[in-house]
Design a protein that fits this description.
The structure is a homotetramer of 342-residue chains. Helix content of chain A is 33%, strand content 18%. With 342 residues, chain A is an alpha/beta fold. At the A-B interface, helix 2, helix 5 and helix 6 of A face helix 2, helix 5 and helix 6 of B.
Chain lengths: 342, 342, 342, 342
């Protein structure tokens, strides 16, 4: 962290600042120029509040030169994190392992989830997604099957062997997630810090979606909340950010993939269904995500998108998913050969 | 709601759609043109899922012509909502009543909160704000005094008579808010629907902040969650939206004020402190908010911004607040005369 | 400017960099810490290309600590710029002088412009706006009356004495602007650098609109293009930035006013008509702009908004303008008293 | 186009509106419901001004159901446009032909451009890019070699046979572009309508970059300006949009590719260099663009990025480009096989 001092700083105030910083265990390097005096802080500055420094009269500006996240930081953990799911741990993500998670937006009925689960399993999906607790903009819209939906997901897991991924909306629902393989934290809850802190205390992989107006650094800071509590199995999910473009629900930010993989060791999946909101853009965006280096995909699949109780517009059919899954595999081979060629 | 049919729609699918819509109690008006057939839906369409309609082959496009919120809608409730706070109900907001809420970002100590409370009371503030449970981006930053902070706020209320406003972050904290006058739902929780639904069941005013990437309609839909549960005392708060401009933390959207007041009967306050993130922009943005027709302001005031444990950069001093409060009053008089002149 | 060196930089490359920087007349201060070496550059760094520095292996990061604009910078020109318009210079903006510019989006006919000009003059406007060359998104839409429109504006000036403001779209139109009082550069041309450079060589005030996705710094850099050529009479115009909010055409960024006035000595006007795109939001946003400290307003007024050939939706009537002008004056008095009170 | 009438519209005003619309050659279909009357307009509504309609008292809302562009519209031109470059027309883009355009940000010297041209030719690039007229944010920065730069590009073309792509900034520069193969219109000029209109009159392919805050529809409307004049050889370029994310210069919007290809028959290239602004993200974003279905790429290559006079930070080396070109070819094969498999 670098502190640029005001041109006419008060020496007493500066001395107080220096004492305070030294008490935080930081080493201080002064560089005095003709017009500008700069302080370089060496040590762990993650607990230093930049806003507080900026409020001091003797400080003109503060520049951070280190990322504020530690456990999620690749610098301190160079190896890719690999997360294994399921009883046998066969489904893996990260460190070269690619995972396709597929399933409906919402669990709607025993028939619906069992049919879709069987279909995506046949096409090669390694995990099943399905919403039981549903965040809906309108209080008058379908809110999900709740605990019953989780029961149906567990039933589908029993039949297919696919580990299940489903979203938690509030800590009070945690009791229903005991048997769930991966707990999803949705975009709207990315900065629900109480929820993150509690999920950091359990032993279960968390799929953390980027808020639709969150920076990549904020996503990594939310992962840090989980990891600071001891839960290091975090899967990050890029699902689009909000822009002025009206033809897609959000703008999928695929450059987040190489950036996250550079800054962090955690695996990254992409959700092209929620990002675009349009079923016919799911295929090209899925392939693009693979090409950009994603560790996995989360794709909405519905056996009858036209009657889906939510987000039918963005769901592809099992037949389309089957074709996509083949294409993803081909793309993965091509990418693999590319990487060898470097 | 208007449904534009595909050029070559299937009559059977259309008949199914019509039956389904009629079963929802909607009246249907068909308009057949040379190239385009349009269906107008008359009735309460708030439970109709636009995404679902869009997924049908026979549907080319769907246009909504009514707002999806009802209880928050001025059409169905033309009179301004007026909310009274405090034991005597003397502090009012809405319907021409203006309220200034002031106080520190965080409660830090008995001395700090009592000094600030006394000062802002003297300057004319009608309510005291102060954070006890603090949402912080970093897990390593100060997280607020929690329940102890609320105790100190209640103590300050006893001494000054000012009703208190403080933020809840999670339902599990609700037990500590029994004595609180106004529960604040922060920007990051604007779409924490479980929290909203529960707060809709209690009898206590809620100050609901706009998410930093939320549309105005989404803000009103979140108010609808509260109101659908029976709690109609909702104060909306504009606090800036996220844009590409780096010189302010967020971009304060003051046009939200006339829009909200047109669409809804709920009172609107503006938080210039969090919006700009810079203390010296608080005064001009406060006056602009008054001029734009806001029903109130929420301003961060700290007796020692330079040592504030959070957001010191954006806090003004009691002295600056005193001057601002006078200016707000003068501006209110000018505005009142303006309105008379129309 | 501060350069943070890579942890394992090559001394030879660093020596080359130092020689190159010294040849640019910069003084260099090295600060070596345990893990980080920092170079502070003292002198005029406005010609140093940050991207170039960042591309060097020996450089980890570069932080600028000075604004890249000089002539527009208040640091080097603390006094407010005051610009006088018209033959007698009676209409002034800046340094406490407030200017209301009003008129139709487009000049449409002799009757239209003469009626509006007379009306806004009567209500107290100090300058007349009207588009002759019109930037339109569609090639099939009305493109303005072009040179004939400017003739009509000059005729209206003769009748009312109001100086005129009208937009140039291309250098090849410059011949028609000889008699124009203020040349407007539209939001879409804010970074048309060839146009800016040429307009910097003439002696005539320029009203420069902020691009709808331009940062405040970029706006000031575009002003710098004009001023670097010798034309120091630049009026800046905030007219909204593009965000995700659909209920207004753009989001008016009123915090730009205090920021610009802090960074620069140039006057700032606000265009609430284009920003919101909705006539009934023009009044509250105008008053808010005054309260925020704007030096002027540019308001669209049309005698028959319902038949305006462009942007009728956002124009107010002469009657509405008359009421607004009175309110602006009252607000200006209130603001003046506020400022005295500080 | 659909017009929703106000609840209590004036019949006389409505009759005037109907007459006016019929005079524009439009057919009108009325649909009267219990609460809402809707008018459907059939015919060519591209010249109807939505703002004008919205300003009428009798109109509650207007919804467009057709795109406002015609010549660029795939509906009226289902076949992909194929554009051939060079004397022999061997370099093709569109309709399954993929084109890689590579070269430096700026032409800097005879040696620089000839070395880079030879290198990218060897690696398989089909066209050479290089800036001669450079749009720079600062008036004090290097502005390009101008006409001399174009001479050097033509020399490089003579030596390599590669057609050249270079940017025009103003109509007054057009004389220097006689021999240029493709004229680039930069992001800042995407809505320079005078320039577009004139370039629509010449016979030379235009590469039109999306403005960094332009919607996809606006990009297509700007293409329409070119095409309305008779120039139908337009290549569209996605180069990122401005968002709140600070870790990339812009956010590359790859979903624009399938959307543009659905709405239009024009070819689309992606510029990952300007979009990300970071050399090491160019490779993953290039591969992602190919996977998403782009018709080409425009990549910055510099033989000495560290000393490039502009944008060195985002340029890759000839060696990196050679590897990337191979990967692109492999990805193209994989994509081809994917498409066969559908």
């Amino acid at each position: 962290m670098i502190i640029i001092l005001s041109q006419d700083f008060d020496q007493q105030e500066l001395d107080n600042l220096i004492t305070w910083l030294e008490n935080m265990g930081l080493e201080i390097h002064m560089s005095e120029g003709a017009n500008t005096t700069i302080m370089g802080l060496v040590g762990d500055t993650s607990a230093v509040d930049i806003n507080l420094l900026n409020a001091l009269d003797c400080v003109a500006d503060v520049k951070r030169i280190q990322e504020p996240f530690k456990k999620a930081n690749r610098k301190f953990h160079p190896q890719d994190t690999v997360i294994s799911l399921g009883a046998d741990g066969a489904a893996k993500i990260g460190g070269g392992n690619f995972m396709v998670i597929a399933g409906p937006c919402s669990v709607e009925s025993p028939e619906q989830i069992s049919q879709i689960a069987a279909a995506v399993k046949d096409s090669g999906a390694q995990a099943l997604r399905g919403g039981a607790f549903k965040p809906r903009t309108s209080p008058y819209a379908f809110q999900g099957m709740q605990a019953d939906g989780i029961e149906l997901l567990l039933e589908a897991r029993k039949n297919t062997g696919l580990p299940i991924v489903t979203e938690i909306m509030d800590l009070n629902q945690l009791e229903f997630f005991d048997e769930v393989d991966v707990i999803q934290v949705g975009a709207r809850n990315m900065q629900n810090f109480v929820l993150l802190r509690e999920l950091g205390k359990i032993k279960k992989p968390i799929l953390l979606k980027r808020g639709f107006a969150a920076t990549i650094e904020e996503l990594l800071m939310s992962a840090e909340y989980l990891m600071a509590g001891g839960n290091e199995e975090v899967i990050l999910c890029e699902r689009g950010v909000r822009t002025f473009e009206p033809l897609t629900r959000n703008t999928l930010d695929l450059s987040a993939i190489p950036i996250i993989k550079e800054l962090s060791h955690l695996p990254v999946v992409v959700d092209p269904s929620h990002a675009t909101g349009v079923a016919r853009y799911v295929r090209p965006m899925s392939l693009a995500a693979v090409a950009a280096g994603a560790d996995g995909l989360m794709v909405e699949v519905h056996n009858s998108p036209k009657t889906a109780l939510c987000d039918g517009q963005q769901s592809i059919t099992p037949l389309q998913f089957d074709s996509l899954a083949k294409d993803i595999a081909a793309m993965r081979v091509a990418i693999g050969q590319c990487n060898e060629g470097i």
